Amino acid sequence: HQRSAVAFARALHVSGEHDGAAQAVERVLDKQPEHAGALAVRACIAQCVHRDFKAAEALCQRAIASDPTHLPAWEVRVRGHAIRRQWLDAATLGERALAPLAAGTPGAWYLVETVTE
Questions:
Q1: Which long-range contacts does 49-56 make (Cβ < 8 Å, 24+ apart)?
Q2: Integer Cα distance of 40 and 60 in angstroms
Q3: Degrees (nearest 5) of the Cα angle 83, 84, 88?
């Protein structure tokens, strides 16, 4: 149930329905305050919509503390550094995110691309 709510929130955010996404995420976080997926969506909204990189970083750190292999949280974190042209930080975080993953892990393409650039 929580997973589908987070997927729905992510889809809403990607389609530009940020308020609906934020509401869906808050419902998940009310029940599970450290839900990695919900925190990652909340971080993406903070970063993409409000340009609040500090809040996004803090939310991503919480998500990663909850699930160290949660790719969406790592992606938001890496993308925040890339947006600000902090290339060394983006590459270093990308490498940290990829290190524990098996080769060919689905969804890791953004991190691989960022590190190789």
A1: 49/18, 53/80, 53/83, 53/84, 56/80
A2: 6
A3: 100
Render pLDDT for 28-78 as a digit per residue (tens, 0 to 9). Answer: 999 999 999 999 999 999 999 999 999 999 999 999 999 998 999 999 999
Question: What residues contact residue 78 under an 8 Å CB cut-off, 6+ apart?
Answer: 90, 93, 94, 97, 110, 111, 114
Please answer whether residues 98 and 107 qualify as being in contact, where contact means their C-beta atoms are separated by less than 8 angstroms. Answer: no
Chain centre to alpha carbon of residue 107: 12
